[in-house]
Amino acid sequence: MIRLEQVSKVFNEGTVNETRAIHNVNLNVKEGDFITVIGSNGAGKSTLFNLIAGTYAPTEGKIFVNDADITRTPEYKRAKYIGRIFQNPLLGTAGNMSLEDNMTISHKKGFKGLGISLNSRLRERFRKELEVLDMGLESRLKNNVNLLSGGQRQALTLLMMVLSRPALILLDEHTAALDPRNAAKVLELTKRFIEEYRLTAIMITHNMANAIAYGNRLLMMDAGEIILDIEGREKQDMTVEKLVDKFHAIRKKEFENDEVLLS
Ligand SMILES: Nc1ncnc2c1ncn2[C@@H]1O[C@H](COP(=O)(O)OP(=O)(O)OP(=O)(O)O)[C@@H](O)[C@H]1O
């Protein structure tokens, strides 16, 4: 459904600060894929997301959605079908607005422009949707979102995004800023929503064990390249040790991401 062909991204081209963040990447994301992405520091993981989301245009190459060339489609247009969650829980929701107002906005997005006003039926629906999170948020519809904890806020962001039914979701270390208990909870909700709503998802994680445990496909990036793309049996049989060994075998160097190896 999303395809990258020979995509490269160079920042500050022709200056002393020139950085080749993505180099000749080919990637075909199939409908229903849940892809985890792991990689050393500066490997190009976030840049890959920025290219898919349209935050940056590639220096070279093309990006397609269902065979339509979207290489030059601006980010705000792609946002109609690509959902994205960042590491920072403050970014996905409006803190100075209530839960119900936040949810109304994302609900409207799901209905692609239909005028929708907040009424008791919609409130009841929001309550039911929030119950699924099992965080007690169903009784806090009128609370401002900035009263929520980081974990609650990230779970709400996830729920709102899922309910707008994006064709593709990009999760950029979305549990990395949470304490371990909340991180595990949000990760489990993520898995559950992806399965229940049959979403196509790409998730960057610094945790190799999670990259192996979640999803049907795993990418490893290094120095702007996808150096490993595994799925099926090969992914199921993968272990952290085997993954580190694979990295050494391919790159003939140490894996430079302390967080990955320590987590
Ligand atoms: N806007 C930008 N301007 C200049 N250089 C950039 C920009 N964004 C990323 N880079 C550079 O591109 C390379 C890849 O960065 P990117 O953030 O994609 O890596 P990453 O794999 O997400 O790293 P990390 O795990 O450390 O977050 C790095 O060398 C980075 O400094």
From TrEMBL:
Gene Ontology CC terms, in alphabetical order: plasma membrane
Residue ranges constituting the ABC transporter domain according to the UniProt record: 2-248
Membrane topology (UniProt): Peripheral membrane protein
Name listed for the protein in its UniProt record: ABC transporter ATP-binding protein
Chief location bin: membrane
One protein family per Pfam: ABC_tran
Taxonomic lineage of the native organism: Bacteria, Pseudomonadati, Spirochaetota, Spirochaetia, Spirochaetales
Keywords carried by this UniProt record: ATP-binding, Cell membrane, Membrane, Nucleotide-binding, Transport
Presence of keyword Cytoplasm: no
